[in-house]
Structure formats: structure tokens, C-alpha cells
Amino acid sequence: MAQERTGVATLKGNPITLIGPELKVGDKAPDFKVNKNLIEQASLADYAGKVKLISVVPSLDTGVCDAQTRRFNEEAATLGDNVVVLTISVDLPFAQSRWCGAAGIDKVITLSDYKDHSFGQGYGVLINEIKLLMRSIFVIDANDTIQYVEYLGEMTEHPNYENAIAAVKKLV
């Protein structure tokens, strides 16, 4: 059974249980399998040799997730070719694609953890009660070592965009 962490996060003030480990700076980034679309999968290895900013959101169709993804899409344009910005949620891939088209998102790669929840469990962000992912940010260097982590305590709050971008810029 996967490790459960209770009392570390809330949704609108109500405690939630996160499944998986709490990763820290210096940890090797766990591999994962997520979906690019309903058939094709992606893993950490698909982005080998690149700095990875992973923006984790519960659902793109909510206000904070929308704003978070739009902000990182804007930032991605300035970070160079050695950086990839991934947004991971459990939204179905066709919903992600529809949302990106409507929002004009063209620099961020959206990936779905709907099928196996391997990202959520591996990174300690799968919410047991509702099977969505807890808002969080991971910056992983080109050697797949975690260089920045932000687990939000309250799901409805924004991450620290400036700190996440600064962590990426230190690596390029």
C-alpha cells in the first residue's frame, strides 16, 4: 500500500490525504507514466537532458489552475530550448487539448495522469478522497534531480511563480 500523508494539505480548509512520498530537493525524480492522448504515453525519460518545470494542477477548468497554466505558458516562451514546461492533471487528454486550444496555450505540454495515477503517487500529490492531484511545482534538472519543490498547503492558493521560475533560471 502506498504511503499516505494526512494533515499536510487542505481543500477549502478541509483536510485531505495525499498518497505517496513527500519529495525533497536533492531527491532523484521518480519516473512516471502519463498520457499525451488516449493512447500515447509519456515518461520522465521522454524529457531527458532537459530542465523540467512540472506544474501540477487539480483541473484546468478551474480558476487558479487556468491562471497557473497561463502564467507558466507565458514564462516558457522566455526560458529557452533546454527547458520543458509540463502541466500534469487528471483531466482527460481530449479535455486538456480542448482547453489549451481555447486558452491559446502553445508552450506548455499538458499531460494526463488519469489512467494509472503513477505521477500522483510517485510525487506524493494524489488526493485520496477525490483522486485529483494536489497543486504543486517541481523543478528537475537535466540529470533528473529535483532542484525545487513546492507543495501547497491549501489547494485553492497560487504557487510561488517567481521562486519556481528563478529555480529554473539557475539551471540554464
Rg from alpha-carbon coordinates: 15 Å
- As laid out across the biggest beta sheet, the strand order is 7-6-5-9-10
**Major β-sheet, in short?**
5 strands, mixed
Tell me how many strands there are. 10
The residue fraction in helices comes out at 10-25%
Mean pLDDT: 94
N→C terminal distance: 38 Å
Low-confidence stretches: none
Q: Would you mind describing this structure in some detail?
A:
The protein is an alpha+beta fold and 172 residues long. It contains four helices and ten strands. A five-stranded mixed β-sheet has the order 7-6-5-9-10. It has a three-stranded antiparallel β-sheet with strand order 1-2-8. Strand 5 (51-56), helix 1 (63-76) and strand 6 form a beta-alpha-beta unit. The longest helix is centred in the middle third of the chain and has 14 residues, at 63-76. The protein is globular and about 40 Å long. The N and C termini lie far apart (38 Å). The mean pLDDT is 94.
What is the strand and helix layout of this fold?
Elements: E1 4-11, E2 14-19, E3 33-35, E4 41-43, E5 51-56, H1 63-76, E6 83-89, H2 93-103, E7 109-112, H3 118-122, E8 126-127, E9 136-140, E10 146-151, H4 161-171
Parallel strand pairs: 5-6, 6-7
Antiparallel strand pairs: 1-2, 2-8, 3-4, 5-9, 9-10
Keywords:
alpha+beta, 172 residues, peroxidase activity, three-stranded antiparallel sheet, oxidoreductase, single chain
